[in-house]
Fold each of these.
Amino acid sequence: MNDKRKGIQRAKRINTAMTAILYLIGGSILLLIFVLAAYIIIKGLLSYYPGILSTDRNGILNQLFNTIYLVFLSLLISVPLGVLAGIYMAEYAKENKLTRFLRICIESLSSLPSIVIGLFGYLVLILMTGANWNLMAGAITVSILSLPAITTTTEDAIRALPKSYKQASMALSATQWTSIVKVLLPAASKRIITGIILAAGRGFGEAAALLYTAGQSTRLNWSNWDLTAKTCPLNPFRPGETLSLHIWLMRTEGSLNPHSEQIANFSAMVLVIMVLLFSLTARILSNKINSKKTGLKE
Amino acid sequence: MSDTILDINKDNKEENVKLEVNNLNLFYGQFQALHNISMNIKANKITALIGPSGCGKSTFLKTLNRMNDLEENVSINGELKLDNTDIYKEMDALELRKRVGMVFQQPNPFPKTIYDNVAYGPRINGIKKKAQLDEIVERSLRQAAIWDELKDRLHKSALGLSGGQQQRLCIARTLAVEPEVVLMDEPTSALDPISTSKIEELANELKKKYTIVIVTHNMQQALRVADDTAFFLLGELIEFRDTKKLFSYPMDKRTEDYITGRFG
């Protein structure tokens, strides 16, 4: 009897201790993120000077635009491909050697160093095509990097759904594809969007893969809307330096620029805020659509 | 086959046969799950399938709308006819499932609104007009005896309903496709007694318009709702007769042992 009571008390003590430890770990992660963000934002604000938010040589608006445009282009490629690949892996692939091999490929792709993918992009999209550095090449390279994340989250999201959804749909005389489009994808959309946000984050932050693909220069003429012109902002086949690459450049070769440190600090702040805004909007939007479709209030 | 007691088939001739099964065998790979099943399921009646777990009653039910097509390694031989048309050889599975709907053991509404759940079947079959969909949704929910409970919350999530309501919603969703036969796979096993009795009343009401085949673990339920009852054991159909006769004068020793609770 006494032994039993001792055992219970011991279990309770361990439970309390573990709860405290877990809270501590969670708290320190939060603190770390908060301190880091605060540091970057404060340093960025202190580095402000008039003209930094311009399209001049010392401004970063062009790079900001390039970043958003490049992420947009890369999502245009990686989202349809990744979601379709995820659907294939979850719904169509049979458990066999080929599928296992595919899965290994996807996993290794996700752990390849981005500079390797960047050089691959340079080789295939720049050298072999004889093109100049361009945003499209950068976007394709970033899509290769983000494809595994989208594929895996889509597959996992669909697999996590109750089998009964598909059964019910099929029993109502739907085809497999109809069931996927009308029932499974909407039900999995929240998790898939998380994967897309992660993939987009990759695009925002990527530097190494863009070094030799999207290029390190930006010369835009904001009054030129001829899509084939080298200086037209919307021409996807022009060179376009992104913010993260700009930060790296300002800290290395670009340090000849008297403002280089301020530009780097301020760019870092803008980048952090942009990623935050992007995740927030994506989540709010997906919640809105979701609650409207399912009738559930969040 | 010769030892199956099928006195039901004698008086069948006059009555309307909806589903005719002849010498049906079903295999999961090498394993034979159904042995030589033959039975006639009558139109506008409730037919119950009873038997211990693993006896093949649910497997048999799934052959009737070809839901086991979705599983790998299933092979079937024999004859299965809906209104004299062979459902495996002469009919498309999608066509069949429009005519033979199914309600599952666990209520399985989609994570959509109540309205969208019921409208799902008509929509995938090409009905787009709102007025027409409204009409179908209301009619189906009325048939499932749940319209009054739900009419004010059609655009709320179906997942917020109680288990019993969800199951009646699933029945409404099945009816919205306007099937001729409704298969029910232990539809009340996850529900409380009050919801169960509502589903049973509903089944009784529905047989005026539909042919119903219900798998149940609950012998009292079979006795309460079914016109005919089939007893399955180890993949064989042991006895298939009028429910009252089967329960009062079981002709096979195994049936008697089962319904008196000696095993299963």
Amino acid sequence: MTEGQILLTGRGIQQVFGKGRGRQIAVDEVNIEVHSGQCLALIGGSGSGKSTLMRILLGLDKPTSGVVTFDGELVEGRRSAGYQALRRDSSLVFQNPFTSLDPRWTVFRSMAEPLNIRLGRHSRKNSLDIDRKTRESLSLVGLDPAEFLERYPADLSGGQAQRVAVARALMTDPKLIVADEPMSAVDVVARLQILEALAAIRQARPETSVIVISHDLGVVQRIADRIVVLHEGKVVESGSANDVLNRPKAVYTRELIAAASL
Amino acid sequence: MMMRNDSHNRAEEYQTGTDLSDMRQGAVSSVERSANQPSKRAAKDRENVALGRGFAVVLRLIWKRGEGKFALTVMTSWVAISLISLFWTPQSLWKTDGYQVWAKPSATQWLGTDGIGADVFSWLMAGARTDLFIAVASVIFAGILGVLLISIMVSRNSALSNGSVVAVDALISIPTILIALILAVPMGASVMVVVLACGIGYGLNLARVARPEALLAANSDYVGSALSYGASGFSVMLHHILPNVMPTVMVQLSLSAGTAVLAESGLTYLGIGVPSGVPSWGHSLATSVKLIDVYPLSALWPGLIVTIVAVALNIFGDVLRDTTDPSSNPELRRS
């Protein structure tokens, strides 16, 4: 498999909370890089620092030390070119689909929102484009637009709602999709459907990078190219999915493999 | 546990690997046709249609329920009588008869006469429009004030939001009647005293009642998502937060409308509400209640009307809440 260009990097990232005796190192000297077209799984239990790391990589929090770059630009503060590029070219999928979709909005309206915000909905051409794109994205995640566009979140199952959230993330044609525990708030069948949706996206848009954050090695093994295992803020294992799963070096990784589902 | 040996073409292999993905493939091919035909309707039209349909559906749903029928009937009659009273009352409001005071109901005076011999029924009819104006005006005022306060209270500027919470909590401790008394000093007895006092009191109350819900929406992931795509705070407030607190706001305002009618009676009775000479239910009540021992019926009519209207508005608020939320009302979601 050919490695694409480097899209996102984090170098020597450290995040420290508190001072004195309450001082806690949440993320400790983490180096990470994501190539375009790659699917990276960030694995770790609760308190491993994976969410903190994600917020730093997305430019939402400032690390104590370390540098993040996106598309070759430095991400440093809200005015930086890297931050602007991140906001423009990345999309987030949240853990709980029902809190990430407005309960009073139809699927269509929620999905069209990112483009409505960016393009404005005043021109007829734009609204036709948005219409077409909504249908394409929804089809890509395996939901029939004719059936689902006018539904409200209360009429969706967890898996359907999360796939709508994934489809919404696609609307802006992002270079990077970050999914934060996308499968932990839904049941097992829904997990499979979400995995399929992510796999279909990777096939349809091979240049799009995906970061999946999870506590469960089992669910990501099917789609991840690379796996990074975090434990107590440190990277304990990092490598191709194949290597990590079949020849784990760290004890913690072995525990994770033994505990994995699916 | 299934472990994969090769990392190549994972996605592709997975596509053909399991039954489930075959099913999905089928679904995709069947929907792709519709994906290639964008709907002719613009997105905005669709929203407007949904909105208009929603309004009709809500009215129908309210009417479907027994208590909803009662509330809607009372409210429609109230509006109709107010309008009619502008052009016609059975007797002139200003026709008095010193020999016919506290008369019993008769063919010409349907509910009898009051202490100066004026027709009680005509005065109650005319009172309807004053009370309707007071209820509507104070609800509008309270709604605007409340929504403004809510917007400030959930603002991302923490100094502003914390400050406004403290301010609202402090101001809310002032009773509506005290606000009215303070306003009556410069303004005298007038309809506007009632409207302003009720508007301020209910607006503060509304802000405090709706704040938790507004905060919940403001901190939700859908707001986070909208902001991450570059939506402005104002647009998020308008499109996400306010629609989600609307059910609470509606109910609270309906209750407030009922309370405003009661407040008008109370304040007019105290002499700081509607001035004498202006027909209102509070006025009818205040003039007749002094002689309740002698002529109990004359105090019964305005009291009864005020009670019925206040109850109807309360019920309307409850029914409205139950019917306007698509997440709790499946009928609204059906197209």
Amino acid sequence: MNNISLLIIAVSLAFIVCLGVRARRGIEMNLEQWSVGGRGFSALLVFVLMAGEIYTTFTFLGASGFAYGFGGPALYIVVYTVLAFVMSYWLLPPVWRFAKTHRLLTQSDYFAKAYGSTALGTLVAVVSLVALIPYLILQFKGIGIIVELTSYGGITPATAIWIGAGAMTLYVICSGMHGSVNTALLKDAVVLVVCVFLGVYLPYHYYGGLGDMFQSLEQARPGFLALPETGKNAVWYLSTILISGLGMYLWPHTFASVYTSKTETSFRKNAAVMPLYALVMLFSMFVGMAAVLQVPGLAGGQIDLALLKLSIQTFDPWLVGVIGAAGLLTAIVPGSIMLIASSTLFARNIYLVAAPSTGDAALSRVSRVAALGISLIAVILTLRGGQSIVALLIMGFSFVTQLAPALFASLLAGGLTNKYGVAAGLCVGVGTVAYTVLAGMTMQKLFPAAPSWVHDVNIGVIALGLNIVAMLAVSAATRRVAQGSIAGRLQSSPEPL
Amino acid sequence: MSRLSWLAAIPVLLAIGGVVVANRVTPFILGMPFFMAWVVGSVLATSLVMWIVYLLDPANKP
């Protein structure tokens, strides 16, 4: 009786849409309410929102898949997340203050305002959209895989993607950020319970306990649970933590949800709590490790199926349905936040620049139409698949990391940089990323004569380094021309608490 | 930014220390491989450190 799992997934989806659409009640939905929840969210809501974005299908399928495929190195995910939380204590409050003073709605607004250049804002928006839309596609792909497997093939991926995307777009258009935060509360509770249950039960069921599982793994694959000598070794581990940690808050949707907070103290409080929440990812890694000896033979992109395959092999259909519903939530809730961020980016930093006389109400309509359009484009690209999308997905994270030098310079060293330098650095960084990915460059090909540890450095470090050099050099060369547009105004606004 | 921010160096040092001194599977700690146990310990320590920073930081005083 496999229909039961399908029924559970369908009911959960219907419930989420109702919850999301109802979130608009009692709110006069202008663009500020729609995009950043009217800057009125409490510490708890900011917590679930940020957790909601960071724990996507990647946590659910990706972290377990990575642990299945690579073992010990998967722990880099926990470490970079935690270090980004530490950084957030000092990073987010000044960003929030600046955004509140200038009524910013998007990440591109921040760069436009801090460096006094609308054109820079548009450049950042284009880079952001190129990074964000593939990330949205990844969530849609997740919906297809999860629903197909947990409905035992009853629903094709294409049908699941159309339905999932349609449901998400519906509540995004109605309620904006209010819908996302309402559903994020439910999603976090469900995912927490499901992840912890699977991570505790599966090792117990197959091995007699967590400790017994690790001992069997060490016997079968000695050293699998630590870092290897070559490949994903200590050098790879640390350089990847650096790149990923710097990039985490640079995702446009994560950055913009900083604006939703009512107070800046929320971020400092959450910096202490969120590391504990990062440990939840450990449980999905336990699942991936449990699968190593139980569903062997998954390779390449297939490793992401480890959690679902092991669950289907182990549990009754109703429980598979619950797991499928949880997986669906990890795709839809973060996806909705990405959709809001990308349509606001389009409306504020591209449409408004082209048509500066657009009023607030009209712009609010533009962003909702953009949400529909972007969602449609993402669905079509997901269904068409293709190699170019895979390449874009790999590039997305490296693209957003290229915004890090400009952000840190605006906060710490405003006097050393200006809009020309930042634009040049961004172009050089993004160009380098695109070249290395499209040309299939590796550190080994770039530096054949270098010592072997250099070959294991994450290649993103190169783009980031060139970006910083270009930013500082061009800023210095254009110092005289750019006078007056230097970002020194960030610290000047005292906190209005 | 104050002297407090130097406490944030502790989590970073724990992460780097993990690959220097803790990159091994045995001995198992509470059933977990040594490397994983190190990461879990580091996360708990980080949370504690950030809580102390939060309490000591005058910016959070009402």
